Amino acid sequence: MGLELYLDLLSQPCRAIYIFAKKNGIPFQLHTVELLKGQHLSDAFAQVNPLKKVPALKEGDFTLTESVAILLYLMRKYKVPDYWYPQDLQACARVDEYLSWQHTALRRCCLRALWHKVMFPVFLGEQVSSELLAATLAELDVTLQVLEDKFLQNKAFLVGPQISLADLVAITELMHPVGAGCQVFEGRPKLAAWHRRVEAAVGEDLFREAHEVILKVKDSPPADPTIKQKLMPGVLAMIQ
Among 123, 160, 183, 203, whose Cα sits 20 to 30 Å from the Cα of 90? Predict the structure, then answer.
């Protein structure tokens, strides 16, 4: 059996895996698992990932979950260019440092911005107080400053002169609040220039293809009440 990827490009880690595989010419069969329809919660998908989350990878009898683990598996198996995950010990450690930080920092802020600004009111029909939204966006702003000051600094990319897995994971996270209408790069010239470099390194067409879903998320139709009831516990847990 060939490589199978279970993804929804609404999901930021799914976008990172999709871009990585496409950019590096890794052949795969795509299985789209539509999160907003609750397909990840089905018994059928639980056979692939009992955690009922995307992304997931399947290759014959081998199944792998968790986006960073999947990216590293693909990187090692398919012998992609070294800059994605450098052999240099310290450069590699910098990639690991970013990937370890972002789970509970940038990802959380970007998720909360998307859901509080768009998905709760538009998709779930639940209003978010102006105070909560303001606090969410302020938290995002603080985290963006950390991304600039601690990780990007004055470098071309987060780790050095070339793109790495750190940049790919970071940019796919930031496109969540962009999809919600947040002006993430406004007033941040260093971050805006980095964004342009990452998009150019990935390829503009591939970047646009991967982010088409999230950039149209504000047009999502309201959730069916049954789907809303099914999704709500997981959504609340995800954005805490």
Answer: 203
| Amino acid at the residue 54 | V
Name residues whose C-beta falls within 8 Å of residue 79's C-beta, 6 or more positions apart in sequence.
none
CB-based contact 35:10 (threshold 8 Å):
yes
Pick out the chain residues at pLDDT < 50: none
- Tokens standing for residue 176: 């969540």
Which residues make Cβ contacts (< 8 Å) with residue 61, sequence separation at least 6? none
The beta-carbon contacts of 189-193 under 8 Å, at least 24 apart in sequence, are: 190/148, 190/152, 190/154, 191/144, 191/147, 191/148, 191/152
pTM: 0.97
Nearest-angstrom CA–CA distance, 174 and 85? 21
pLDDT in tens, 167-205: 999 999 999 999 999 999 999 999 999 999 999 999 999
> DSSP characters for 99-133?
HHHHTTTHHHHHHHHHIIIIIIIIIS-----HHHH
